[in-house]
Amino acid sequence: MFTQSFPRKTILLLSLISLLLVGAFAQDGKKPAKPAKVDCSAMTDADIVKAVQDKIKADPKFKDQLKQINVSSKDGKVTLDGWVKGAAAKTAVGKHAKSVKCVKAVANNLGTRLVVGCGRGQKQCGDICIDSKAECNIMN
User: Fold this and answer.
1) pTM above the 0.70 mark?
2) Per the structure, how many domains does the chain have?
3) Contact, 96 vs 56, CB < 8 A?
4) Residue 98: which residues within 8 A CB-CB, separation 6 or more?
5) Contact indicator for 120, 138 with CB cutoff of 8 Å
C-alpha cells in the first residue's frame, strides 16, 4: 500500500513544484526591470538638495512647514535644520532625505518645536536658525 501512494505523492509534488517554477519565470517572457543606476559622481550637492526638497514638497503633510525646513549637503552628506510638528514628522523628513539616491548620510537636526533666537554658532535662515557654516536653502 505504501509503495502505491508514494509514486502518486511524488508526481503530485513534482507537478506543484514545476507549476511554481513556471509561474515564477513566466512574466510575459521578460525579466523584471532593474532600477536604473545613478552616476553619483555626476550628481552635485545642489542636485541632492533639490532632490531632497522635492521629496519633502511632494509629501502633503509638510505643505505648511516648508519654510521651516532647511536642507544642505556637503559631499553627499545631508543636513536637515529647522523645525517640524512632532517627532513623527521629524522621522518622516529624515526618511525622505535618506531615500534620495547618492545621499551618503543624513544629520537630522530638526527640532519639534519653534525655538526663538539663534544660539552660539548659528545664523538666521528665514524663520529658523542653522549652523553658521551651513548653506541657507529654505524651500518656497
Assistant:
1) no
2) 1
3) yes
4) 106
5) no
Question: pLDDT tens, position by position, for the chain (140 residues)?
Answer: 445 566 777 777 677 676 666 666 655 556 666 666 778 888 999 999 999 999 999 999 999 989 999 999 999 999 999 999 999 999 999 999 999 999 999 999 999 877 777 888 989 888 888 889 888 988 87
Range of the domain at 87: 40-131
In a domain, 17, yes or no: no
Q: Does the residue 75 lie in any domain?
A: yes
Burial of 62 (0-12, 13-18, 19+ CB in 10 A): buried
**Is residue 55 in a domain?**
yes
Please name every residue paired with 79 in a beta bridge, in sequence order, or none if there are none: 72, 107
CATH of the domain at 57: 3.30.70
